[in-house]
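<derive_structure_tokens>
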Amino acid sequence: MLSEEVRSRREAIVRRHMESENVHDFATTLATFKHPRYEIIATGQVYDGPDEVQRYFRESRTAFPDQRNELIALHHADDAVISEFWLLGTHKGPLMGIEPTGKEFRCRMVALFLFEGTGLVCERVYFDSATILRQLTA
């Protein structure tokens, strides 16, 4: 069982991480990691290390310059904080071969923020890509 201190520290890291993504303060986002790594399960993409994670930020914010999240709930596990959230954005740049449509999307997602102790080592994101594609191409 995790101590309340560890749970609180982890939750504060996740909240700072998500809030800094919303305002595109990616230096702060990177600083929340002990080791930066994103795993985007729906697309099979993995961004490992600071340079790769910076590339993820560039790619995702080129496609969706106003991309943001709205937190629904946080849940705690022994080695993770699980975040349920809405991801929103407007398709203003190329996305995996799809030209910008100018359409908005809203998709409910889950991210596992994986920890070693109190060090964040991975954000593993799950979502239904068809939910987003349907909204962008309808």
Remarks:
- Strands lie at 37-40, 45-48, 68-77, 80-90, 104-116, 119-126.
